[in-house]
Amino acid sequence: MLNDNEVSRILVVTAHPDDVDFGAAGTIAGWTRTGIEVTYCVITDGDAGGFDPAVPRSEIPGIRRAEQQGAGRAVGVTDIRFLGYKDGELAVSHDLRRDISRVIRQVRPQRVLIQSPERNWERIYASHPDHLAAGEAAIQAVYPDARNPFAHTSLLRDEKLEEWSVPEVWVMSAKTPNHWVDVTDSFDAKLSALRAHESQTAHRDDLADMIRGWLTMQAQAAGLSKGRLAEGFMVVSTA
Asked: What is the pTM of this model?
């Protein structure tokens, strides 16, 4: 596994606005504090989300993009790229693989953080179909697409984007995490990021307790001392 001091650029690929904040905002806050540049690639605008029927559906994409930008600022991320795919209809396609490969070649990250493409029957809410599709498309973009100059040839021919090999992938909500990050000192930043998604979290009076409970369970799995909080990942070498 790469040490953080070997990493200068990280790309995060998720299906919806707020996915990264539920799964990894504490870890990301720690990365940006050390000077690592983090870019978000959000595949959909979350246009099927929200709980207020009085808000016109046509306004939801703009609301959720703005919320994700605010959430990013809470953890030190300002480079946020939206691909504009339809929420709730995401499927692995060559177009999606190409679009993620484009961002990989633009950012040239040493680490990519993705959602799990495997359904977790113990945490079914982490296995939204869009999450599974985003995870599968992202890992296919990492390998083999982004590193192969003969895949999605228009990226090189028309956009002059040369191939890029990502050395390491971190997977959120994995069934078998093998690495945990102590995020105790980043809890407030993570909570601020989640609260920035007002259309999704404003109705949750128990948000802080719920998140603290999740992070406490992961800290226990990591063997951390009582009172510590953690986010867990499966780290995979793709070098």
From this structure: 0.96
